[in-house]
Specification:
5 strands, alpha/beta, 14 helices
Length: 340
């Protein structure tokens, strides 16, 4: 009798495992993929997994301000420092935590850069588009499940735990690209940076914080920042808080001031481009893609400034150039794209 029960249990277990396997395979076809264009998150996030282990000195995380400010190819070409950006649009701070945690499974960076913007906004659920941009390209596993659980999302979380529930109606829209999974084995030539060339005139000004009153960020954002700082310390890396060049109002500047003080209490480096804007050489007429993001030319200047700041304020110094054929080839491709 016991043997019969065991056999029944085994059959049900095998059936369940097969059903889950089939569901995951079908979901992979139906789920949204972004493998082309500037915002090709599937390749940028997925490509990170295909990079050699322990090959990056610096990792960057956060919102679109992060992927428009740190340019890994430009930074490498100037300093030899190797970096990667794992950012998504309006990346929720809970997602940032799990992106860092997942990234540290294969890399041992000396510096972890976190962009400040999303820690200074009010608490509100992530929109459907923002949440899917963060979740969909993220690797399957416990960190993905925990990230979904911790995020405040405006639509049903079931659509993120099982993506087929969200995308099953796409069967009429499927194209050849939905059956192409080459991006799972490829790397991103820009190392997570978003390559934008359009130029829009901006009016970013240098900020004098002495007249700005510090404004506390929300408790949930502060708790998450402290959680990130602890995670980075536990992995023997140094945290760096980055405030990208941005024409922020007084309320936002007050929150930046509070967050910067909190970061320094945690032993983090702080680089606020609004505080040193005139030193960076960033040009309001030529170096912004829109009202809040740098284009490729502005990012080159920003990355140069980031590199100098890191080498002056950390143990990380200029790295001798090795036989990095992949980096040199990607820099050639990058320069070719700029010349178009």
């Amino acid at each position: 009798m016991k043997i019969k029960k065991i056999l029944v249990f085994l059959r049900r277990t095998v059936f369940l495992l097969l059903a889950v396997s089939i569901m995951l395979s079908v979901s992979a076809i139906f789920e949204r993929k972004t493998t082309s264009g500037a915002w090709n998150y599937s390749l940028k996030v997925g490509g990170y997994k295909n990079e050699p282990s322990n090959s990056f000195d610096i990792l960057g995380f956060g919102s679109s301000h992060m992927y428009c400010t740190l340019n890994p190819l430009s930074l490498y070409d100037e300093t030899g420092l190797r970096s990667y950006v794992l950012a998504t649009q309006q990346q929720p701070v809970e997602a940032t935590y799990y992106y860092i945690k997942e990234a540290l499974k294969t890399q041992n960076p000396k510096i972890v850069i976190v962009e400040a913007l999303m820690f200074t906004v009010n608490d509100k659920p992530a929109t459907e588009g923002v949440a899917h941009d963060a979740v969909d390209p993220f690797p399957s596993g416990i960190n993905r499940l925990l990230m979904i659980n911790d995020m405040d999302i405006e639509d049903d979380k079931e659509n993120y735990y099982i993506s087929f529930l969200k995308y099953h109606t796409r069967w009429k829209e499927l194209t050849e690209g939905d059956y192409n999974f080459r991006f799972k084995t490829e790397t991103d030539p820009f190392r997570g940076f978003v390559f934008l060339t359009k130029a829009v005139e901006n009016s970013v000004l240098q900020v004098d914080y002495s007249s700005i009153e510090a404004k506390p960020i929300t408790q949930s954002k502060e708790d998450m920042f402290l959680r990130i700082a602890k995670l980075v310390k536990e992995n023997d890396a140094q945290l760096m808080l980055l405030v990208s060049p941005y024409n922020a109002g007084e309320e936002a500047l007050g929150r930046y001031k509070y967050l910067k003080a909190l970061a320094k209490e945690q032993g983090a480096m702080v680089l606020d481009f609004n505080e040193c804007f005139e030193e960076t050489g960033i040009n309001n007429k030529t170096d912004f893609y829109d009202g809040g993001h740098l284009n490729v030319y502005g990012a080159e200047k920003a990355s140069s400034f980031i590199g100098k700041h890191i080498m002056e304020n950390s143990a990380l110094k200029q790295t001798p150039f090795g036989d990095d054929a992949d980096w040199r080839a990607d820099i050639e491709y990058y320069n070719a794209q700029k010349s178009k």
